[in-house]
Amino acid sequence: MDAIFLQFLNGLDKGGAYALIALGLTLVFGTLGVVNFAHGALFMLGAFCAVTLRKLLTLEMVATDPEKVTAWGTPLEIRTPYVEAWFGDFGAFMVDFSVPFSILLAIPVMLVIGVVMERGLIKHFYRRPHAEQILVTFGLAIVLQEIIKHYFGANPIPQPMPSAVGGAADIGAALGMDPNVIVYPWWRLIYFAFSVVVIGAVFAFLQFTTFGMVVRAGMADRETVGLIGIDIDKRFTAMFGLAAIVAGMAGVMYTPLLPPDYHLGMDFLVLSFVVVVVGGMGSLPGAVAAGFLLGILQSLASMTEIKAIIPGIDQIIIYLVAVIILLVRPRGLLGRRGVMES
Amino acid sequence: MSERKDGPSRRKVLKGAAAGLVTAGVAPTIFTSSAHAFRNEPTGDTVTLGFNVPQTGSYADEGADELRAYQLAVEHLNGEGDGGMLNTMQPSALKGEGILGKKVAYVTGDTQTKSDAARASAKRMIEKDGALMISGGSSSGVAIAVQGLCQEMGTIFMAGLTHSNDTTGKDKRRYGFRHFFNAYMSGAALGPVLGQEYGKDRRAYHLTADYTWGWTQEESMINSTEALGWETAETVKTPVGAGDFSQYITPVLNSGADVLILNHYGRDMVNSLTQAIQFGLKDRQSNGKDFQIVVPLFSRLMAQGAGENIKGILGSTNWNWSLQDAGSQAFVKSFGAKYGFPPSMAAHTCYVQTLLYADACERAGTFDPIQVIKALEGHKFDGMGNGPTEYRAEDHQCFKDVLVVRGNENPTSQFDLLNVVQQVPRSQVEYDASIFGGDLGPYEV
Amino acid sequence: MNKIFSMSRKDVLTFVIFSAVVLLMPIWLQPFGAAYPDLMQKFAIFGILAIGFNVLFGLTGYLSFGHAAFLGVGSYTAVWTFKLFSMNPIPALILAVIMAGLFALAIGYVSLRRSGIYFSILTLAFAQMSYNLAYSVLTPITNGETGLQLELQDPRVIDSAFGSTSDGSLPVSNLFGLVDMNGIPGFYFCAVFLIIGFFITQRIFASPFGMMLRAIKSNQTRMNYTGFNTRPYTLTAFVISGMFAGLAGGLMAVTDPLAGAERMQWTASGEIVLMTILGGVGTLIGPVVGAWLIKYFENIFSSFNESVLHNLFAFLPDGVEKFVVEITSMFVGEGWHLTLGLIFMLVVTFLPGGMMEGFRRIGSLFNRDGGDKAKPNEKTPAPAPAE
């Protein structure tokens, strides 16, 4: 029972990540009708916002000690981080909390990247076939990741979480059970909470603001909204920026769980498309539901007991579920008719 | 590409008019004529070696480091730079005048860490660029695939980083040679140290990368730990490149195990170790003992990606730059002087392999692969970083000391990640060549 | 029967020129440094793969994102045929095509119940399942990560019945013991199949069946409303293109007897899509050009290391040379992915019809004053820097 509970919990934090990525992808699908293969790259760029900030915060003064020599013959270097030298304890605190702080950096950076991407490239592909959208955004994704590789190398770069939440929380004890039975990493719980907050905020924005209302109306019937005299394009550009921000924040917060490297986006790309399609093209609630569903199923399928019955099930569960859902429900969980079918 | 050397065209591909064109360029060479002829026999004043490393994909940094080592080796062979291990290698027939008087040139290729791409790239170097020897690799699947190809082509393959037992076991080939250690040796070296450090009464939980290397690593670790009296609680296979391993780590918590053995390498290792520590496994108590994590194959380069998390973790490695013998120091010094940082173990094995090949050619007095193979088989040497070493003739595996290392608690630099706990003597990790089966195949191909 | 072979003059001309271009590869690829057997074999094999894919995607508009699975099935079947029966490529290829066809029939039957992106995701899911299982659980059949290889102990019942003896080395695939399937003969073997495959697609494009498929592409709903069941047609196209992929997979095993799981990964499927779009979807020759271009980049651009560049630019003054090498090295060698990504973006942005549209535009530049020398321009080799 404990095991199932733990796996369920695990599915929630996995699902949170899937849902966040799928949410941004669906925002772009639903509004602009563009299949964005560079969405994974946006996630990766977000993660590298965290890497960059940490790099900046840990920039070091390098003084060489001519007396001593390293084993490989260069003078020994003495390094002191600037931030600590200037701000003392507060500097150390900044470094410790660099990942949460990175969100503040990621929001403007990702907004700019998103808007530039949309205005500079995606805009020209609204009315082009999906296959061409796929090719051009895939090309963009490769270019973006190669640029990152050029500056940051191919190895993963660790991003420690704040030490205050570094360990694991004893959930079992908090619920009055035996201690040390149900423990779960703090950061994963935080990630889950974070994803719920962001998803909630996006929904609230679309539901309760005039801006969101117009966008939703545009998603449903672009032409009519245009005829009323509303410049829907501008709002859709803003939605692309929003999607980029969501992907970027998801990337920032994911870095302590998975040391980021330049290839991170590609690894999530296929998965996020499966999530979006299972949820139903263009449906935001569908994307979120599918994200959590697939996350939980993946966790449960990885249990030794289940693998003993069906060997290898953990490797294919996501795809298997996708096939079954698409055969039972032609347009995914909550998809609308006629979206992306031609 | 002026440096490309094309062997003489032995075969008229397109008879008549086209023949002139063909000789001018490619040389599709299938030898049927004289017995002494061999593919890509160097005719000019240079000899071309092919370095096949991952330049794209997850292992690109490791591949870049391997390439640096190859470039350094070529420099040293040609008598440039400070000579590195040329000065410490014993016995050595190398004089820093190239190989057999011919200047060493090289071509490079990208394996992409995929068997197909690696074979295509090796074929290009052999068929088009006239490479006489292929070296490289950062994964066992790729190394085995390229080794098989080299056997078919009659070209010597000096394996780079490949750790699976199969490379010189089940899939060994006459034309393939491995200096790097293997999973069996990791197990045999780690076992006794684990016994000393963590006692004889332990229950181990294995997470294993679900492919051949992972399986051989798991098997070797189970054999050596069970010989100590440990129990194996559970062995769980994880998909390669899973990214998030948390769903496999949660069951560890209440499994009754008190040691977690991560049979992962590269990115998988970085991720699973980082995530396991977030689950508080390192601070956990189980069965009244401190919970421990073991990573059988450590790579300093990849360990950087795990950051703080490797502190105090035991594992094994082929070589580390902190070794104090003359060979290691000479290599670290010339590598550091050229690039500004110390070499990785992947760089070390690639450098040594290149020198060993060149030395074998000198000793054989010819580039003829058959003679070179015979010169390498059973060759004993020293001064290359791991103490006295032997290329065993039966399986083309090098036998030498293996390092058991621990993640450094107080690193003095970003490179100072591993402390050598013990240099396990060769005798302890040696095994009978027949236990893994396989067949080297013929000299003549 | 006669009708099948009756072709328009333009088609005959295209076919003849195409065959000539393929067969003369060892000559005209010289200046590009690509005229070595392995790469030419790859050109032929991936050409087959791309034209087969084009039968499905180019004609029906169904975008399969799992085509690599059939390539993998073909390879595994061919290697198993080598291991169990004979090193002759003919039975291996026949079985590879049949197995891939059966696989395509099963996957196509299920996936074609949906259209648009739902179809793409279904094919992707099937291919990824095949890949993941082949890499791990199915290792007894596929030999997992290492890849399925020939072994000395393989039974090869037909070969041994004919008394072929082993000399202790691994056998090479050969045509009735006459020609070994590696090197240049291996290339010509593949080239013949590429030409046959091209001929078949040409016929499909011109046939009523091809017209039907195009009609499905332009408006499937309307076709369905007229009471016309489109499924048998799309399924046939799917199976045909799956068999082409199986043939390509089989040929890969024939020229190089190793089959690895990564051939089925989504990136491999994606590569096929990219080849087709890059060259020109729905055109006969475009996909082949796309395949050649991508394989050329993968094999030649990736091999330019810094020392090659230094040699290349040695004529420049020192400072300038260093700068030029620094800039170019970002795009070649380990940076070849970057170049590929940029090319995708440029081609798709400015030449939506792929490389073929580019050639057409260049062609129309020369023919602006209405000369009747209108010739297919597909012969123009892919633009690549001379060495």
TrEMBL record, chain A:
The chain crosses the membrane at residues 15-35, 42-63, 101-122, 134-152, 189-215, 236-257, 269-296, 308-328. It holds the Pfam family BPD_transp_2. It comes from Maritalea porphyrae. It comes from the Bacteria. It is a multi-pass membrane protein. This is Branched-chain amino acid ABC transporter permease. Keywords: Amino-acid transport, Cell membrane, Membrane, Transmembrane, Transmembrane helix, Transport. It is found in: Cell membrane. Belongs to the binding-protein-dependent transport system permease family. LivHM subfamily.
UniProtKB/TrEMBL annotation, chain B:
The keyword Repeat does not apply. Residues 46-408 form the Leucine-binding protein domain. The keyword Transport applies. CDD domains: PBP1_SBP-like. Gene3D superfamilies: 3.40.50.2300. Pfam families: Peripla_BP_6. Keywords: Amino-acid transport, Signal, Transport. Belongs to the leucine-binding protein family. This is ABC transporter substrate-binding protein. It comes from Maritalea porphyrae.
UniProtKB/TrEMBL annotation, chain C:
Pfam families: BPD_transp_2. It is a multi-pass membrane protein. The keyword Transmembrane helix applies. The chain crosses the membrane at residues 12-31, 43-63, 68-86, 92-110, 117-138, 186-213, 233-252, 272-293, 336-355. The keyword Ligase does not apply. Its main location: membrane. Keywords: Cell membrane, Membrane, Transmembrane, Transmembrane helix. CDD domains: TM_PBP1_LivM_like. Signal peptide: none annotated. It is found in: Cell membrane. PANTHER family: ABC TRANSPORTER ATP-BINDING PROTEIN, HIGH-AFFINITY BRANCHED-CHAIN AMINO ACID TRANSPORT SYSTEM PERMEASE. This is Branched-chain amino acid ABC transporter permease.
